[in-house]
């Protein structure tokens, strides 16, 4: 494994401008309302259109599909900057759920599906969700039980999905279903419009973190959708999901590193201004050393994640490294948010404190997109252990 980093790739004038745009958008359109959205448990649909008009939603998608013509590094830069400007991974989960709902559609090249679902989502006119996880299923994608039975020109779908991001607001759900025999070879992806008879949101779920990102349990009861809504070939869904998982895991890794950096910055500002026994906290060696260790870990994770992302975008096979990057970034983030809350003391436990929100939100990062344990299983297998 080689770690390389091309600064010219990350620090171009265009990408610097994109970062400024994301930061300005966060300060103007997100921060004044984030506490309200946290209490309400969702972000308003119009925020998607505002973000799209600003050029943020489709930064990594070709213009012919409704995007801005960039690549995934542009989107990773946007996600970083939103958190560094005071946003949150929960906000990103809600606003960018199209990032897990539409890539399979775009990659399929199906013009009809792209025009009906991907383009409207990238333009902020529709909200998309990805329905994979099921009650009792967890990370076992090959064990999908929701079925899709072919009936003439339609599929009849029955089953349930759990922990679905943007599930209460979605206009469509890219749904993993079983169209074939047991195991990975029998999985397909089908787009299900949420207004279809038989589709219901069973319940909105209350969570520990990501409060502004609505999460739902979905139920499919003889839901009929056209065969034309099939993404790719029948029974090719598992391979499609596995391919897109790498992008999702890198996104979560970058969010973890950005969260760690944001909490570190907040902690440094705090210890410089907070006085105890007549001296600022920053004058205490134990405080300085804790921050020094945190900064070192963040720098290492930052460099490694950027290197992995760069190589992945350039077409290298990176399943091992993306799994490592996600786990390492999450571990660094966990340490950084814990240290920040500790240094803030009592204030760090209060809802009025930003680090308190990051502390809760960070717990999701080691679970979404494949748990830490699943990542370690992938890593160990690819290492031949």
TrEMBL record:
Keywords: FAD, Flavoprotein, Oxidoreductase. Residues 130-223 form the Acyl-CoA oxidase/dehydrogenase middle domain. GO terms for molecular function: 3-methylbutanoyl-CoA dehydrogenase activity; flavin adenine dinucleotide binding. It comes from the Bacteria. InterPro entries: Acyl-CoA_dehydrogenase, Acyl-CoA_DH_CS, Acyl-CoA_Oxase/DH_mid-dom, Acyl-CoA_Oxase/DH_mid-dom_sf, AcylCo_DH-like_C, AcylCo_DH/oxidase_C, AcylCoA_DH/ox_N, AcylCoA_DH/ox_N_sf. Pfam families: Acyl-CoA_dh_1, Acyl-CoA_dh_M, Acyl-CoA_dh_N. Residues 12-124 form the Acyl-CoA dehydrogenase/oxidase N-terminal domain. Residues 235-381 form the Acyl-CoA dehydrogenase/oxidase C-terminal domain. One of its GO terms (cellular component) is cytoplasm. Its EC number is 1.3.8.4. One of its GO terms (biological process) is fatty acid beta-oxidation using acyl-CoA dehydrogenase. The keyword Oxidoreductase applies. Its cofactor is FAD. Belongs to the acyl-CoA dehydrogenase family. This is Acyl-CoA dehydrogenase family protein.
């Amino acid at each position: 494994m080689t770690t390389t980093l091309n600064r010219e790739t990350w620090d171009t004038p265009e990408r610097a401008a994109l970062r400024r745009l994301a930061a300005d958008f966060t300060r103007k359109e997100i921060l004044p309302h984030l506490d309200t959205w946290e209490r309400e448990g969702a972000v308003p649909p119009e925020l998607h259109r505002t973000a799209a008009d600003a050029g943020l939603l489709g930064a990594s998608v070709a213009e012919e599909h409704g995007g801005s013509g960039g690549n995934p590094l542009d989107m990773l830069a946007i996600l970083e900057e939103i958190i560094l400007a005071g946003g949150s991974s929960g906000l990103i989960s809600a606003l960018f759920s199209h990032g897990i709902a539409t890539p399979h559609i775009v990659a399929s090249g199906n013009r009809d599906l792209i025009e009906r679902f991907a383009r409207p989502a990238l333009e902020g006119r529709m909200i998309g969700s990805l329905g994979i996880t099921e009650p009792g299923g967890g990370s076992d994608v090959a064990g999908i039980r929701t079925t899709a039975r072919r009936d003439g020109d339609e599929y009849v779908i029955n089953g349930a999905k759990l922990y679905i991001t943007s599930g209460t607001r979605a206009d469509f759900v890219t749904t993993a279903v079983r169209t074939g025999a047991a195991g990975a070879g029998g999985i397909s992806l089908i787009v299900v419009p949420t207004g279809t008879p038989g589709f219901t949101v069973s319940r909105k779920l209350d969570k520990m973190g990501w409060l502004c990102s609505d999460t739902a349990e979905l139920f499919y009861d003889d839901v009929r959708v056209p065969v034309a809504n099939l993404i790719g070939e029948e029974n090719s869904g598992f391979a499609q999901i596995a391919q897109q998982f790498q992008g999702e895991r890198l996104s979560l890794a970058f969010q973890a590193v950005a969260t760690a950096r944001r909490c570190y910055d907040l902690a440094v500002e705090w210890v410089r201004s907070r006085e105890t026994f007549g001296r600022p906290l920053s004058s205490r060696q134990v405080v300085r050393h804790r921050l020094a260790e945190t900064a070192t870990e963040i720098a290492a994770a930052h460099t490694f994640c950027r290197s992995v992302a760069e190589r992945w975008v350039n077409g290298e096979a990176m399943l091992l490294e993306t799994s490592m990057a996600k786990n390492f970034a999450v571990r660094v983030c966990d340490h950084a948010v814990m240290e920040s809350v500790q240094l803030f003391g009592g204030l760090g436990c209060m809802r009025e404190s930003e680090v308190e929100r990051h502390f809760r939100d960070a717990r999701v990062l080691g679970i979404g997109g494949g748990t830490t344990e699943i990542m370690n299983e992938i890593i160990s297998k690819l290492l031949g252990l």
